[in-house]
Design brief:
alpha+beta; four-stranded mixed beta sheet; four-stranded antiparallel beta sheet; 2 helices; about 10% helix; about 15% strand
Length: about 230
């Protein structure tokens, strides 16, 4: 009986591991694997089907810091976030992506009461480009339109919000569908279509990459989350 019980325990443990590993990138996971396929959800509903192995969007170029600049006057087309899509990605689950498939984040340093305020400015906004808008009317799929709004930033530009939280991209993500910004500085988290933090996968805290070389702060820090920086945002 004892050997049989031992076999049963081992089998149960193997099943538990099989279910646990796909759900989150564990400690020691290569940061480049913090990504997966993207599958849009139906508008206003949850996505329940398995994501595909590759991001659905064709664009694969890295996000630029152009949208993070403290915009004045009319925004360029590249600076505007024209679409918000509720979707799912491997290991993380529910996320919101922009028109190019970049995963969006929320920042604990921002304020939602007594009024919504984006506090990520300067170099912070270079590393975490805000999702800017001209008219506050992006195309929306898989997100309740009533949860989408805007906040006026310090420079006068308008930033999209979901559930009152201002949303951002992360310059450390190297391709659509990645979410290397999860738990950076214990302040940055993937945002769900409701505006809530997605805590399905919570890798060990890491530091943000440094601003690009053409900013005032020097090198970008190609090591990404693995090497980290001394920046506090």
């Amino acid at each position: 009986m004892v050997p049989e019980k031992r076999k049963l325990m081992v089998a149960c443990a193997a099943i538990a591991v099989a279910f646990a590993l796909p759900g989150c990138a564990p400690a020691g996971y290569n940061a480049s694997d913090y990504s997966g396929g993207v599958k849009p959800a139906a508008n206003g509903s949850d996505a329940t089907t398995e994501p595909t192995d590759e991001p659905t969007g064709e664009p694969t170029a890295e996000p630029t810091a152009s949208g993070a600049a403290e915009a004045k006057g009319k925004l360029s087309e590249d600076d505007v976030t024209s679409e918000l899509t509720g979707t799912t990605v491997k290991r993380m689950g529910k996320v919101v992506v922009d028109q190019e498939g970049w995963v969006l984040y929320r920042f604990d340093g921002d304020k939602v009461k007594p009024k919504v305020e984006s506090t990520c400015v300067g170099d912070c906004a270079v590393v975490w480009p805000p999702a800017l808008t001209e008219d506050g009317k992006p195309e929306i799929e898989g997100v309740d339109p009533e949860d989408v709004g805007t906040v006026t930033r310090a420079d006068g530009s308008k930033q999209l919000t979901i559930g009152d939280w201002p949303v951002y991209r992360y310059l450390g993500d190297k391709k659509p569908g990645q979410w290397k910004g999860q738990n950076v500085g214990k302040k940055w988290f993937v945002i769900e279509p409701t505006g809530a933090k997605n805590l399905t996968c919570l890798p060990p805290p890491s530091k943000p990459i440094a601003p690009p070389a053409d900013s005032d702060e020097g090198d970008e820090g190609e090591s990404g989350n693995a090497g980290g920086t001394d920046y506090s945002y």
